[in-house]
User: Which sequence fits this backbone?
């Protein structure tokens, strides 16, 4: 059920008008635009879109990257390292998670007591809602980053982790986020880092083919090939000195020695993230210089851009 506080910050993404709740629909003030609420989630986008592969993967692996499921603070470590936020300051504040997937980072933000709005373009919102619906401070929306259905400056904290490089126009996707940040609020985003070395990774050799495959066919292929590829990667990785570098050329996500996961979960993460490498319609890494320029042009202050696993940018609005 939509709370009155949440309804207050929702806006029609076409007209910018306030929305009225009419049964299982949200209607713009002039009555020209109507949006369904299905399974408790307001839907502002077509059912099928360029992010279908993410909807597929997060519904197949709905719980896998949740810390509450893995038993290890993997998502929490990445979240706090990227944002550098104070969890005590987040309590009772409105937080926007853009590209929530199945809710791995939303779970961390919810744990602070924040009012978390988890948005995704894909059907991953259904996995997120299913995973985290026991939190009364969760609000899930299926929406478009290029037409966010919220009033400007509604959120004290806005983050988008592991998402923006997978949008058709990364600069435009980033530009949609600063207007959502309230005065004094904070923004954190991350990207794959663009460099000559990154383009040596095998996913960039293979994606011209794999991104055109039917997602179900690609997943089936990887399901059968990832165990063998993981074994090869592990064998190469044990070569003294150079092994840890050479295993990067095997097209599989190998987290052995990186995450303290049991064998079954290491295989699950390998399959999920290898699919994540090869299936997206878009994959556009960015440089630190470009990201800093975007933050500056958006008027963000206290800008920090650093390599923290991914290329991370932070700032606040005055």
Assistant:
């Amino acid at each position: 059920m939509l709370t009155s506080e949440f309804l207050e910050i929702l806006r029609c993404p076409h007209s910018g008008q306030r929305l009225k709740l009419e049964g299982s629909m949200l209607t713009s003030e002039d009555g020209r635009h109507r949006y369904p609420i299905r399974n408790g989630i307001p839907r502002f986008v077509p059912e099928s879109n360029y992010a279908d592969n993410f909807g597929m993967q997060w519904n197949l692996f709905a719980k896998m990257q949740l810390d509450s499921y893995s038993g290890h603070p993997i998502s929490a470590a990445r979240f706090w390292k990227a944002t550098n936020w104070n969890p005590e300051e987040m309590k009772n504040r409105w937080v926007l998670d853009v590209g929530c997937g199945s809710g791995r980072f939303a779970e961390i933000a919810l744990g602070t007591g924040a009012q978390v709005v988890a948005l995704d373009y894909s059907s991953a919102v259904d996995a997120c809602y299913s995973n985290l619906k026991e939190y009364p401070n969760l609000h899930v929306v299926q929406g478009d980053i290029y037409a966010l259905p919220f009033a400007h400056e509604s959120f004290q904290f806005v983050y988008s982790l592991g998402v923006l490089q997978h949008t058709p126009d990364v600069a435009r996707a980033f530009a949609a986020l600063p207007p959502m940040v309230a005065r004094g609020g904070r923004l954190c985003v991350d990207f794959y880092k663009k460099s000559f070395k990154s383009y040596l990774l095998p996913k960039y050799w293979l994606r011209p083919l794999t991104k055109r495959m039917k997602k179900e066919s690609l997943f089936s292929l990887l399901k059968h090939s990832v165990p063998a590829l993981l074994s090869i990667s592990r064998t190469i990785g044990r070569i003294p000195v150079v092994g840890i570098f050479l295993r990067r050329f095997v097209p599989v996500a190998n987290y052995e020695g990186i995450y303290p996961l049991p064998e079954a979960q290491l295989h699950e993460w390998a399959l999920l993230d290898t699919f994540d490498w090869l299936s997206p319609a878009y994959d556009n890494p960015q440089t630190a210089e470009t990201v800093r320029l975007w933050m500056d042009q958006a008027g963000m202050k206290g800008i920090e851009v650093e390599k923290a696993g991914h290329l991370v940018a932070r700032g606040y609005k005055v």
